[in-house]
């Protein structure tokens, strides 16, 4: 598993969107595994919050 670390800078990660957008019964996008709220809030998040979500998504990929 790839480990994602949170950089100590204001550099933002790329969006996790892979343009395979469909919310499943589990409430997650089938492409990026984000919830609707996570998708909607992405641009308003700080760089740190975005990196934290990227780390959550990496863990989510293992369990979904």
How would you describe what is shown here?
With 64 residues, the protein is mostly helical. It has a domain at 23-64. Helix content is 36%, strand content 0%. It is built from two helices and no strands. The chain has helices spanning 36-41, 47-63. It starts with 35 loop residues before the first helix and ends with a helix. The model has no long low-confidence stretch (mean pLDDT 91).
Compact description:
This protein has 64 residues and is mainly alpha-helical.
Features:
64 residues; 2 helices
Helix content: 25-40%
Net shape? globular
What structural class do you assign from the helix and strand content?
A: mainly alpha
- The number of distinct helices, counting runs of at least 4 residues, comes to 2
> Count of DSSP E strands?
0
* Largest beta-sheet characterization: none
Compressed to H and E, one letter per element, the order equals HH
Through-space gap between termini? 14 Å
Low-confidence region ranges: none
Question: What is the average per-residue confidence, as pLDDT, rounded to a whole number?
Answer: 91
| Fraction of residues in β-strands | under 5%
Specify Rg, calculated over alpha carbons.
12 Å
């Amino acid at each position: 598993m790839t480990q994602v670390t949170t950089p100590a800078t204001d550099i933002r990660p790329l969006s996790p969107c892979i343009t395979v957008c469909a919310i499943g019964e589990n409430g997650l996008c089938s492409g990026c595994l984000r919830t609707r709220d996570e998708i909607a809030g992405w641009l308003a998040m700080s760089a740190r919050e975005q990196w934290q979500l990227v780390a959550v998504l990496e863990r989510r990929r293992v369990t979904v």
